[in-house]
C-alpha cells in the first residue's frame, strides 16, 4: 500500500481527478461475453424527492428509485456512482413533465442510447369527509416510470388507490348485511406520443375512486361512517365491474396509448384476494 | 497459500478435524469490551420443518428460524455454524413438547447457560364450509418461542388468526349495511411452570375464531357466503370486544402464566387499521 | 329471513344443490360494460403443495398461489370458489409436467378459453459444504407460471438463487480486501413449443450458481469459510458479468424460447443495490 | 332511511353537531366483559410529517404512525376518528421535544390516563464521501415511541443504521480476501427522567456508525471505494464486537435509562443472518 492511500482519522480530501487518473478502471474492459444488456444500474435507493404536479403545488416525499442504462456488447460494466449523482441533482424536480429531460441527462452522463428511470413514492391528497367536511390526508402509492429509446420517451404513470368494495352477490343472497372490504385499484397509463400527454397522478386517482363502491377516508366521524356504509351498499361491485369501469374511462382518453388496470379485493370473508386484470392494446 | 488449500473444481473433501486444528479461531479470543450479550446467533434462516402437534398428525411446513445463546463477558464470539447443524438435526420434530429438549441441546453444543429459539411457520388446518360442508385448508401464521434459563424453560406459543369483524357502530347508525373487514387476532400464551403446560396452536386458534364476528374460510359457495354474511352481521364486534373475549378465556386457563392479545382490524372504510391490545400479568 | 336460513350453533349441513338452486346468481348477469377482461381470479392464497420434480423426489412445501381465467365481454363475474376447489384438488401434484393438465382443468371448470396459474414457493435442495462435506438445506424461491391459450400452453419456470458476488473494481484498486455481498440471480425461462420442454427448477439453479463469484451455503465450518472466501476473491464479477454468463448459457438451450435474467447485488458498501437485466427475444 | 340521509352526488355538508347528536353512540355502552385494555387506537396510518431535530433543520418525511389510549374496564370502545384529527393537527411538529405535549393532547382528547404514540419514518442525513468529498443523502429508518403514564412520559428513540461489517475469522484464516456484508445496527435508547433527556436521532446514528467496520455511503467514486474497502478490512468486527461497542457507549450516557442494541449481519456467505443483542437494565 502506498503511503498516500493509508487511512487516517482526519483523512484529507484528495483531488478526485488526480486519484481517479491513477486508479485502473476495469469497467471499461471488454466483457468476457459480448452480449448487450438492456438495462443495468442502481435500484432500491431511498431518497427524498419533490414531486412536481401539474395542477397542485410540489410535494415533498420519499422515493424508492431505480436508474439504469443499456450496456452495449463491448462494455463490461457501467459506472454506478453516476446514477447517485444524477439522482442527487434531480431530487427536487421529479414529475411527468421533467421525466424526458431527466432521462436525457442519464443517457448523456452514462454515454448510452437508452436509459430507464423508476420512482415509487407515496403521494398525499387532501380528502374532505363526505358529511362532516373534516379534512385529512390520504396516501396514494404512485410510480413514475420512464424509458428513453432512440425513437423517443415512453412515460407511464401508475397509482394504487385504496377503496371499499361491497359484494353484489353477498348483498343479493343475504337477508341483511353484505360483505365488504378494502379494494386496491391499480391503474397504469402510458402516454401517447410523448410524456407531455401523460396523465398526472391526481387524474388517475380520480378515475379509480369514482369506480369503487365507495372511497376510503382517513377521517370519518359517525355521520360520515353512516354515509360511506350506505354508499357502498348502494354501489355494490365485483372486482370485474370496477376493472371494467376504470378501463372504459381510460380507453376513451386519447392521451393514453397503453393501459393496465388491476383491481384486488382483500376479501373480508376469506384470507385470500380476488382480482381482475385488463390491459390494452391486446 | 499452501498448496493443499488451493481451490480445484473437484476439490477432495478434507478431514474437518485436521483442517480445523490448523486454523486459528478468533472466536475464542477475549473481547475488547468485557460485556455479556444476552443473545447472539443466527436469524432469518429458512428451513423445512415438521411441526409436531399434540392432537393432530405431524405437519410438514417451512419455517423462518432463529437460534441463539448468551455470550459471556469473556468470550468474543459464538460459533454460528453450530446453530445450522442443530437446526438440521432437529428439523423433523419441532413442537411445544420437544422445545425444552431442543433448547437444552443448543445450550450444550454451544457451551452456554442460556439459549433461545424461535420458529415462525404457517400451519394449515382443514376448515369445513359452514353450509355446503366443503373442505379446504386455512393458513394460520404461528410462532414457537422458547428460552432456556438456569431456572427453567419459558415456552410461548403464538398464532395469528384471520377472521371477519363487523362494526357495531356502522350497523347501529346505518339504515342498511354495515362495514366489515378482515381482522387479525394475534394470541400469545406463555406456559405456566414448564412447556408441558403450553397451549398447542390449535387450542389458540379455536379460542380466537370463536371470538370473531365470523371465521373466514378458503372455500365459500353461495350458500356459505349467505351464512357468513349474516353470521357477521349478527355478531358485530369492535376490536376492543374481540380482544376482551379472547383475553378473558385465556386468563381463566391455569396453564397460561402470561398472555397477550392483539386484534387488528383492516378497516374497510379506511386505509389504516384499528387495534386493541391487552397483556398480562400487568 | 326465512327460518331455514337462521343460524344455529349446530347448523345442519344442507344439500348444496338445493340451496344453490334457490339462490340468485348475479355473476351470470350481463355486465354494465361489455368489455372482456384478460384475467380474473383469486390471488395470494396460501396453500400447502407438493412440488413434483423430474429428477428428485416430490417436495412438500407451502405456496402462494394465483388462479384465473379470461372473462368474456358478456359475463359479469367468475365463480371464485371454484378456483379454491381446483387448488385443493391439485395441491399434491404441482410441477412443470402437470401444469398443462391443471390449466386445462381450470379452463374446463370455469368454462373459459384461457386460464392462468402461478405458484410461488420455497424449494430446498441439499448442499454439501465445499471442504468439510457437511450437509444442509438451502432455500431457493421458485415460481411456476402457466397460461393456457387457444394456441397452447405457455410455461415459465423462475428461480431466485442467493449467491456471493465480489467486486472486480474493489479488488483491483485496493491493496488488500475487496467488497463482496449477497447477490440474487433471478432466472426466468419460458419453454419452447410446450411445457414438456420446460427447464425444471434444479436446472435453473445449477446454471445460476455456476455463474456467481461463489455459492452460499447454510453450513460453513472454518475450513469451508476459508474456501468460499478465496473462491469469491478469485472469481470477482460485476452484476453485468454474471447476467451475461447466465444468459449466454440459457440462450444456447433449444428448450428455452424466451428468457430473462436479473442479477441484483445487495452492495455491502451501499444501502442500495446494483442490478443488470437481460431478456430475449428482444 | 330518512330523506335527509339519502346520498346525493352534491351532498350538502351537514352540521356535524346536529347529526352527531341524533346518532346513537355504541362506543359509550358498558362492555360485555369488564376488562381494561392497555392500549387501543389506530395503526399503520401513513401521513406526511415534519420531524423536528434539535441540532438540524426540520425535515419533511413520511411516517407510519400509531396512536392509542388505555380503555378502562367500563368503556366499550374508543372513538378512533379522534386519533386522525390529532395526527392531522400535529403532523408538522413531531420530535423528541414535542412528544410529551403530543401525548398529553391524546390523553386529554380521548379522556384517558394513558396514551401511546409511535412514528416510524425515514430520516435522511447528508454524507460526504470519504475521499472525493462528494455529497449525498443516506436514509436512516427511525422510530419515535412514547407512552404517557400517570407517573410521567417514557420516550424512546430508535434508529437502524446501515453499515459494512467484515468478518475477523474470514480475514484471519484466508490467504487473501475476507467476506464482508451489509450490517444493520439497531439502537434503542429510553430517556432517563423525561423526554428532555432523550438522545436525538443523529446522536444515535453517530454512535452506531462509529462502531462498524465501515460506514456505507450512497455515493462512492473509485477513490472512495478504495478507502472503504481497506477501512473495512482494517476494522474487522463480529456482530458481537459491534453490539458491545455501541452498548458500552450508551451505557456510559447518563441520559439513557434503558437501552437495546441489535446488530444483524446479512452474511454474504450465507442466505441467513447473524445477530447479537444486548439490552439493559437486565
Question: Would you give an account of this structure?
Answer:
- Four copies of one chain form a homotetramer.
- The first copy, chain A, is 25% helix and 37% strand.
- Chain A is an alpha+beta fold and 282 residues long.
- In chain A, a hairpin with a 6-residue loop joins β3 (115-128) and β4.
- Chain A is elongated and about 80 Å long.
- The termini of chain A are far apart.
- Chains in contact: A-B, A-C, A-D, B-C, B-D, C-D.
- Chain A binds chain B through residues 138-139, 162, 164, 166-167, 169-170, 173-182, 214, 216-218, 220, 222, 225-226, 228-230, 232-233, 266-272, and chain B through 138-139, 162, 164, 166-167, 169-170, 173-182, 214, 216-218, 220, 222, 225-226, 228-230, 232-233, 266-272.
Give the overall shape of chain A, derived from the CA principal axes. elongated
- Indicate the structural class of chain A: alpha+beta
Helix content of chain A: 25-40%
**Secondary-structure element sequence of chain A?**
HEEHHEEEHEHEHHEE
Most residues in contact, chain pair and counts: A-C, 58 and 57 residues
Average pLDDT taken over every residue of chain A? 92
Beta-strand content of chain A: 35-45%
Spans of chain A of at least 5 consecutive residues whose pLDDT stays below 50 are 1-14
List the total number of helices of chain A. 7
Radius of gyration of chain A: 24 Å
* Measured distance between first and last alpha carbons of chain A: 61 Å
The count of DSSP E runs of length 2 or more, i.e. the number of strands of chain A, is: 9
Q: What is the oligomeric state here?
A: homotetramer
The largest sheet of chain A is: 9 strands, antiparallel
